[in-house]
Task: inverse folding
């Protein structure tokens, strides 16, 4: 019985039906379905989502998805990536799964064209900047006249009153860190933005007791500008009290909206986030 689903890795420009070999999830053959100047990179599958209670199995599927996109990029050029576990299926038994994909490509042609122009020749990079809170607190304590004054007053107070002054110092230090963090964010963002075509500001994540994440950015960068961005980040990394984590290149997921299906004869299964 024919599989009624088509697992979609991404969309590339081109009108050729080609096979990329058994590089898909669970060793499935990955091939292209062309229509209207674009082709979907797919494998044939049952019309149901990939699900497993084993975390390692899911991680392996995600890695394979990424690997298939990398191979598609080598073979086909720029690929608009879709999230893991995006599956098209037909609700109508008369319509073949490949035709469902062709209808989808045709219906979303203009959007694909716009996205392709936006990401062509560009990749996504992750940029995370951290600061060392201990070093920053020491610097603030040494340089802030307000905090020095509070500490001087605290030295002559009784233990009970000194405790209140200690709390006052802590509040002053916290306020100054927040003020400085805003300045650092604006400065670093401006310097990074100058080397990127687009930036998505992501939520910061908890690091560890020795580092606080200041920025968490997804950056769309033209390939000829990557070295310039790297040099800028190296300067930031060499600034005392700061460190940088630079990752990529990745498919530009953060700059590609996940597909919407307009036709009532098509269903999308997706676990993508």
Result:
């Amino acid at each position: 019985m024919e599989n009624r689903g088509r697992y979609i890795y991404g969309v590339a420009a081109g009108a050729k039906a080609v096979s990329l070999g058994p590089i898909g999830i669970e060793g499935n053959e990955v091939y292209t379905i062309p229509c209207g100047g674009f082709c979907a990179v797919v494998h044939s599958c049952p019309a149901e989502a990939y699900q497993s209670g084993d975390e390692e199995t899911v991680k392996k599927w995600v890695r394979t998805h990424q690997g298939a996109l990398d191979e598609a990029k080598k073979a086909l050029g720029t690929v608009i990536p879709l999230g893991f576990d995006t599956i098209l299926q037909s609700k109508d038994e008369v319509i073949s799964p490949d035709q469902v994909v062709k209808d989808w490509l045709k219906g979303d042609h203009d959007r694909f064209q716009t996205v392709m122009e936006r990401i062509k020749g560009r990749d996504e990079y992750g940029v995370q900047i951290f600061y060392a809170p201990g070093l920053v607190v020491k610097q603030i304590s040494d340089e802030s006249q307000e905090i020095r004054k509070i500490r001087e007053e605290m030295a002559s107070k009784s233990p009970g009153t000194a405790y209140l002054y200690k709390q006052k110092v802590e509040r002053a230090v916290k306020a100054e860190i927040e003020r400085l963090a805003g300045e650092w964010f604006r400065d670093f963002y401006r310097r990074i933005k100058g080397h990127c075509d687009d930036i998505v500001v992501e939520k910061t994540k908890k690091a560890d007791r020795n580092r606080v994440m200041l920025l968490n950015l997804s950056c769309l960068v033209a390939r000829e500008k990557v070295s310039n961005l790297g040099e800028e980040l190296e300067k930031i990394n060499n600034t005392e009290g700061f460190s940088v984590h630079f990752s990529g290149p990745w498919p530009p997921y953060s700059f590609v909206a996940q597909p919407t299906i307009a036709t009532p004869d098509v269903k999308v299964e997706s676990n993508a986030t």
User: Anything to note?
Assistant: Residues 261-268 have pLDDT under 50 and may be disordered. The helical segments are 55-76, 97-107, 109-119, 133-143, 145-155, 159-193, 226-237. The longest helix spans residues 159-193.
